[in-house]
Description:
This protein is 65% helix and 10% strand. By secondary structure, the chain is an alpha/beta fold. Bound molecules: adenosine-5'-triphosphate. The site of adenosine-5'-triphosphate has 11 residues, from helix 11. It is found in: Cell membrane. This is ABC transporter ATP-binding protein.
Amino acid sequence: MQEFKQGTKFFVQYLKQYKLGIAFVFVLTIVSTYLQVKAPIFMGNAITDLAKYVELRLNPMTHNLASKTDFHHALMMMLMFFLFNAVAMFISSLVISRITGYSTNAMRVGLFQKLQKMTIKYFDSHKDGEILSRFTSDLDNIFNAMNQGLFQLFSNITLMIGILIMMFRESAELAWVTVASTPITILIAFFMIRKARKYVDLQQDEVGRLNGYINEQITGERVIITNGLQKESVDNFLEHNERVRQATFTGQVYSGMLFPLMQGMSLINTAVVIFFGSYLALHGDMSRATALGLVVIFVQYSQQYYQPITQLTSMYNMLQLALTGARRINEVMVEPNEINPTNGKHIDNLKSKIMLDDVHFGYDANREILHGISIEVDKGQMVALVGPTGSGKTTVMNLLNRFYDVTGGSVKFDGVDVREMDIDSLRDHVGIVLQESVLFSGTIRDNIVFGKPDATDEQMYAAAEEANIHDFIMSLEDGYDTKVTDENSVFSTGQKQLISIARTILTNPDLLILDEATSNVDTVTEARIQKAMDNVIKGRTSFVIAHRLKTILNADKIVVLKDGNIIEEGNHHELLAENGFYAELYNNQMVFE
Ligand SMILES: Nc1ncnc2c1ncn2[C@@H]1O[C@H](COP(=O)(O)OP(=O)(O)OP(=O)(O)O)[C@@H](O)[C@H]1O
């Protein structure tokens, strides 16, 4: 019930701006329903008129009085009603498609805009596929339900009410006969739906698992090939696939049975109506022609009456899926936005220093990762963070850029707490090169000028030269216009990182955060990265997470982290002289170099 309420609120929020269109569709629906329920009356009248004509014509006494005019008149009326009805339905389906298209579009845009305001925490704690499915299956379900379901719901309810009114007006006895089977029909329908739903849910779960498996196998293809596990991979796939097939089949058996069952019930009902109608014709006090007309009317009503019941029950699953979709999209929409203080302070340029002051932090309230660390960096200095995996190096970077907020202490730029700063101003002054550099689809040029779209070609070349990647780009057939998704231009991790470095140089940040790439870098590229890093770091305030210690020998300060604590601090020579953790790390690495 809660889901229903929330879902209704969600749809109202998007549909309220189409009030006029919806009102128009409702009026058309009512007109079309009226025409639909009136048509059997004209059909009945036509039959009555035809029967009267035949009766008169067969009797020699009344032979000359027989006229087909009434019959033709009734037929014409019926034809007009059908025509009007068809036009009304066509127009309303056009309006509905338009409203559905625009409102699901608005949902998609809203969802995407919301994602751009979300915290990094959200992306860290949700799988990509999970976020993506809001845009795909959830929005698809909503689109289908709105396009086919929501207005059909209204038109079917209107149709049902209309038919009931007309039936009771024509003949209360036959009306009761027609509706008598309703409770048992609804019970059967709900029983079948519940059964089908169980398997539809199972099918969705199995499809989700299959997709997850395929995703995992594609990502891990390298490991599978290296270890010769292709056969195992296919066998597991077949198992998952078979489970999907079984669940789909059973679900289809139940949901596929629903329609024929409803049709069957409708036919039985029609037969009962014919039986009672004929009884009335033979034993009642109305003329045979009138009774025949009445039977024709009710035969059609009993079929029409079952149509909304069948459609409403078969729509149940579709509407349920749309409600689930609405809930899942709403979950994203109510997620907290990234906090940006009102009237936050803007910084022009870093003037003196950046400070982490007794910083405590944990991603979860019950597990602290950083236990009170303090680091001071003067303008223009390079600080290197080293330490074993999981010691908290990336976490420090996350706090500098305010991806997360500290739980104790503070991070300050020129004495101003980052929580008091305008977040865009802060990020404008911080440039980050991540370990796994991301290239967006487009050309190399697009990727380099990403953060500064108005950069001139000269500025772009200078940045690329500084990043030591200009010559490589020029050696490509299309140079800076090479598409990054081209099969012939698959970039290595190192090359991607150099392009990211060029992208960052172009934005000329005050503080540079560099997470050195660790894997898949050949020695030539490594040397180039080293040179690029030296270039980019020169004269800039920078934090570098270093995995190869020889890249940070010139650092002004090396901070050694272990289990979220600073265990050593100083420059390379001081730390070597201390002969502690750093010295051991350095000597070990040198053995392998
Ligand atoms: N988004 C997150 N949510 C919860 N815990 C996290 C998250 N990111 C990191 N952690 C945890 O915080 C601790 C420190 O991780 P962090 O990534 O800062 O280490 P690191 O020193 O950068 O390691 P590496 O050298 O392997 O990159 C680890 O125990 C890790 O499990």
